[in-house]
């Protein structure tokens, strides 16, 4: 019966997120009491430290990391989605490019980080480039498979009505593939944040990865966990925005 209750799912609910946070805080508190070591401070200690240092120091690193993640995800989507959709819709092009994708995709692109930093430096450009390079193929393969999965009869029926190639992409292929593309964006977002942490700890002096690693190096564990909270908050905000976009662009899924 819940299939027909789409109006109740028109926007993501905050209550499940609050419930999840409560469970994590409870488990964190229990582990902190069991270990009873400075390396795992109680959650309230980390939260107080987060509030205390956010605007003077931590907020700047939060904004920088957020810029890097969002920019990387947007660049990967803008480049990978059109190529993936065309590959999935055009069989000849797919036969030409698929072997290249299959050969390059399994290579762990993070191994190119030293080379990228030599060529582009240790600033934003190198970090964004390596993130885009890694998540590009995740999004491309998903978009390609989504386009290939569209029933041929659907495309044929639209062509019979006089639709041009542009109309097919605009009114059939893109809407049909959009939910899976947004799912790929969510999966790639987790990868992007993980790669971001690694790139910011390897080189540079800004970003949440640098902040967390620097706090760990100084054995300031409450500050370290404040940085971890900030990185978790960054991921949560990005995921929530993607959920909102899905509910706006893919409304038919919620009715």
UniProtKB/TrEMBL annotation:
The UniProt keywords, alphabetically, are: Cell membrane, Membrane, Transmembrane, Transmembrane helix, Transport
InterPro entries per the record? MetI-like, MetI-like_sf
An example Gene Ontology CC term for this record: plasma membrane
Question: Is Cell membrane given among the entry's keywords?
Answer: yes
Localization, UniProt: Cell membrane
**Where's the ABC transmembrane type-1 domain?**
62-246
The source's domain of life comes to Bacteria
Which Pfam families does the record cross-reference, listed alphabetically? BPD_transp_1
Transmembrane helix keyword on record: yes
Q: How is the protein disposed in the membrane?
A: Multi-pass membrane protein
Against PROSITE patterns, the record matches this protein to: ABC_TM1
GO BP term (any one): transmembrane transport
Query: What is the protein name given in its UniProt record?
Result: Binding-protein-dependent transport system inner membrane protein
Species of origin: Calderihabitans maritimus
Question: Which residues are listed as membrane-spanning?
Answer: 14-35, 66-88, 100-122, 128-147, 189-212, 224-242
The Swiss-Prot or TrEMBL record describes its family as follows: Belongs to the binding-protein-dependent transport system permease family.
Q: Which PANTHER family match?
A: ABC TRANSPORTER PERMEASE PROTEIN MJ0413-RELATED (PTHR30151:SF0), ALKANE SULFONATE ABC TRANSPORTER-RELATED, MEMBRANE SUBUNIT (PTHR30151)
